[in-house]
Request: fold
Amino acid sequence: MKLPLQGAIDCDIHPTPPGVTELLPYLGEYWRDQFVNRHIDKLGFNLTSYPPNSPLSARPDWRANSGQPGGALELIRAKALDPFGTRFAICNVLHGAIALFNEDMAAALCSAVNDYVAKELLDREPRLRASVLVPAHNPELAVAEIERVASDRRFVQVLLLVMGDMLLARRINWPIFATAEKHGLAVGIHAGSTYRWAPTPSGWPSHRIEDYVAQSAAFESQLVGFLAEGVFQKFPKLRLVLIESGFTWLPSLLWRTNKEWRGVRAEVPWIDRPPAEIVHEHVRFTLQPVDAPKDDPAALARTLEHIGSDRVLLFSTDYPHWQFDGENALPDGLPERTIRRLLVENALETYPRLRDGADSSDNTGRAEEQVP
Amino acid sequence: MNIPVRETRSAQKFSFVDGDIHPAFRAPSDLYPFLPARWRDHLLTFGEHLRQGLSGQLAYPRMMASGMRADAFPEQGPPGSDLEMMRKQHLDANGVEYGMLVALSRGGMEERNLDFAAALSQAVNDWQIEAWVKPEPRLRAGIVVPQEDAAFAASEIERRAPDRRFVQAIFSPRASDPVGHRRYWSIYEAAERHNLPVGLHSAGFSGGHPSTGSGWPTYYMQEHYAFSTAMQSVVTSMIFEGVFERFPKLKIVLIEGGFSWAPALGWRMDKHWERMRAETPHVKRPPSEYLRQNFWFTTQPIEEPQKPAHLADIIGWLGWDRLIFSSDYPHWDFDHPRHAFKFALTDKQKAMVFRDNAKAVYGLQ
Reply:
């Protein structure tokens, strides 16, 4: 169904990552020389997870005339913002820099991407917000990048990939979470892999569809990691957002971890209450893709009952990825109360920085419900 | 945490098929009579050669008594090694009509030396018959095969298939490659030809790949959770590789991997298959159709929603004909047949989950 109101907050859109040539002005002299001399500026830096011509990577009507996914600003305005009456949209720029092994080069490119995003997207379109791209495989450099851009409050979360060098919740990465929490930034984990490891526990699948389906299991693994490692006990204000993760797998995770916790809590004594309660408080999921049967809206409604909270979903179009058709960004079967929460209120709770100036720009007429 | 369950009229006569019972060696020497001298010497000299950093122990130590029921230790040997105790504590006490043996140890599924793996496989299969099924006809054996040598595995299935005391082939869901890969197809061909299901039991390290796409987790809690994500990759791989187009009658039993994830995985596969069909034209039907036609799931460790009726939704979506009750005796997270389900099953549902589904899949009389 279509959105019932103006002013929704779209928590996942994908501007086209800038090419290295576009990033050169944002790079220091050393890296400019390196990229030009080594012809690195001619490389594409496309992540393997999102081949540009694949049907999943862009809806046919969300492609530019060139056929490329429609991630330029004018197309974002025309296709992603205007038709949905979007109040804010959070840009997740999936630049291939994060898959480089060279940590310094990755960090330099991440910084350049973030500066490019601020100048070329956020400065030019006030409805846009963004995630900070960081080299997660070096927590020290990742923290430095967060600190560098944190004063720009249009950056609302730290962006990590669901499959990388190691499970994100491991203690070596905790400085990233400490820094995010300190600055009121959510931590967002997006689908995709740097392919450091096989995407499944039994190795490398043959087909891209298998890799994509396997993303949800990767999100499960990350989420169970955050629970088991005690990240939310250490960082009680931290908000974790799973982006393009799907969410219909969540009930099974809640039931399984609740039961496991009863059996293994001596191993992880810092888990002080049923994991489902921790998830309800700290973890959010962007809406698209909605992995539910399209001919049985009741199944989705039941699944939301199984999830047991209408605070966990955040509206997203996943523009320009092909997850739905037309303007039907909402699946059938969602209760009205859930729709209201997921379009606006849940995002304002999750991303404190979106509340900056909320009083003046609010056009939902329900400002009193927005701050918990 | 256990809610008392209403006893039914027929409680005294209640009997069921147990889809997952683990037999153990009283001592490593139990296997020696079944191993050629060459491989007995090899075992004693070099030991098993696995893809893990610790030898002779699990890298994720279990929570309780090596992962065993604390009350299941016989006077000598580990739990599951004493047939008398198994009878007294489980087969007789709980009313097991048939019990499916899943021999996890030393069957060659995880061994890197493939010749050794073949010898271990044959030895464990002989041992199951001699030590367990001959003295206790309620038990049924599983042909344990080393999947990485698919040619041998197929030949072992061929060799054992005429012996009806073997009711399935068993190997690791965490192989060196996703199990739908063609290198494993000769196993499926043999299994389908003999109408033997393939049972895949959750395992830790077999193929050497970490249990997540982001490497190894820290805690046993995570490793235990990964049993369910590993099973998802089994389903996805077999369907998208087209295994069931090639072997439409193949039956896959997923043992100890959970099942409440399955409907959502079916929805996810269907949704994205629709977009991506051009990549896998050999997948003719919506993936969830294969899921509901070619896969069965054992129940233990059964998921426990706060509202027990939610599990009935899941089973309704999956199909009551897909579930096979299992206890996992003598492991620590044993499910008791009378207490596993926290909501009332109809007589028909009960008959399916506790008896009829297993009998149909395994061809039991």
About this structure: The longest helix of chain B spans residues 220-240. DSSP finds eleven helices and eight strands in chain B. The first strand of chain B starts at residue 16 and ends at 21. Residues 4-11 of chain B have pLDDT under 50 and may be disordered.
